[in-house]
Amino acid sequence: MNYFQKDIETMPRKKIEELQLERLKSVVAYCYNNSRFYHDRLEKAGVGDGSRIKQLSDIQYIPYTTKDDFREHYPFGLRSVPMKDVVRIHASSGTTGKPTVGLYTKEDIENWSDCVARVTVAGGVTADDIIQISFGYGLFTGALGLHFGLEKVGATVIPASSGNTEKQLMMMRDFGVTGIVATPSYALYLSEAIKEGEHPLSEYKLKLGILGSEPCTPEMRSQIEQNLGIYVSDNYGMTELGGPGVSGDCPERNGMHFAEDHFLPEIINTETGEWAPQGEVGELVVTTLTRRAMPVLRYRTKDITRLIYEPCSCGRTHVRMAKTMGRTDDMLIIKGVNVFPTQIESALVGTEKIGPHYQLVVRRENFRDTLEIRVELIDAKVLESFGELERLRNSIENKLRSVLGLQTKVTLVKPKSLERFQGKAKRILDLRNVENK
Amino acid sequence: MTISQLSIFAENKPGTIYEITRTIADAGVDIRALSVADTQDFGILRLIVSDIEKARQALNEDNCVVSVTQVIGVAVPDKPGGLADVLKILKDAEINVEYVYAFITISGKNACVVLRVGDNEKAIKILNDAGVTLLSEDFIKQL
Fold this sequence. Notes:
The complex is a heterodimer. Chain A is α/β, with parallel strands linked by helices. Chain A has helices at residues 6-9, 13-34, 36-44, 67-72, 106-122, 141-153, 165-174, 184-196, 218-228, 341-348, 386-404; strands at 88-91, 101-104, 130-133, 156-158, 179-182, 208-211, 231-238, 243-249, 256-258, 263-268, 282-288, 299-305, 307-308, 320-321, 326-327, 332-334, 337-339, 354-365, 368-377, 409-413, 428-430. In chain A, the strands form five sheets. In chain A, strands 4-3-5-6-7-8-9-14-13 form a nine-stranded mixed sheet, with helices on both faces. Chain A has a four-stranded antiparallel sheet with strand order 10-11-12-15. Chain B contains five helices and seven strands; from the N terminus they run E-H-E-E-H-E-H-E-E-H-E-H. In chain B, strands 1, 2, 3, 4, 5, 6 and 7 form a seven-stranded antiparallel sheet that branches.
């Protein structure tokens, strides 16, 4: 088993918690003394400089930080060091408003790179690897985050950036690339380009992929692994928390290990804002324990997951987070059941005879919620007999019922009749408050 | 001797069948025989047309889901029991008939019928032996 920082990654839980408590106290004091934003917040909440924090659960007295806080204090309102100590600025794409800015001191970059290095080593990277980074460089945290982390591991890094697939493939062959960093959709696209190109997969030396920056269902991941003959590891992070490397999965593939010496995760009930019982599903909240330029206390990630505290057979002792089940802002509640579009997507991907696009229509009929799932029929063979068409529809409904625990209505529609989205897909049509109330 | 049949997926929403028939008409293709199987949610439209390739191409361009199946066309005397006699021949040979529908036009003293059976080859042989007139693609083009 390979680790990047074995003594930290396999530290006994008691030690981790002691370290976290010490760092929590120190980051609260640091925020109180260095950030005007947090000073006022902590003062108002009665937490002050955190000297009364006695145990980790006292974190519940600290107010949450939200995406809106980042927006309202754009660009540098959350800064906690003089600008001369800031060595880098990153920012999110800002698809939902002003970009989210991340600031880093030299020490922040070191710690971040350590976290990324751990994730990549857990994903199989060694100093012998030649890794092509096909994330777009620029303000986005993904490319440079992976770049610095991989260099720390000692791997050879090719900053290919995104685009120009032919050239990407040529470099992969000519430089003997063993691993790629890309979005899942680009990795899938590359695999198709290889299949259609003149150079068979045997001319490539690929063995691993570190994919990220967009959601990837387990089904999509195994398709990429199959197409490219590689091992794909998953990781988690976001600009608000500094970028990738917050957590990453190990070969056990049963959750992503947090870098718990740098981040303190909690799970809360989205509606009440209270702590969820241990092991239950809820919204992930994360506190950065070591960031200097821009520490963040109790950031509400809006990601729905659960924390796994049981020991992992990989030897890492840091808590794992389950694959995110969706986001609080796209969760649907139907007949009291929480439904995430990602669950539906993973049930539909890999179903033969239908296309990958879908639309969800939620209605209220006779005071009961109904969920209709519209999918495109693409295989004409089922038209041979009416029974076959009905069987296809029923099998999709059964699959969805077992995934969602909910009876849905599947409607087959013509190919290309569902809307295609360039950017973020809007696949949910909730008519419950529109139609005959 | 078989003839080609188009099966087209039809969503259950207003205008679907209109759009399909319009597309075929705009391609300059004639519909010879037609049947619709449907439930509340969706249907399959089955057609025998004057020019199957043209119709298929036009429907494909319109993003319809279309499949082509080989079926048997028979001419049965236009009198009571005409169809029953043909179906008896198949029943006696234990050939399963999945569906039957009639042509829109009548040619001379005969009514034309489309048969979708479990075993085309066997059915053709039995019907030929019994002296039943089978329809050819050419015949359908000229109707």
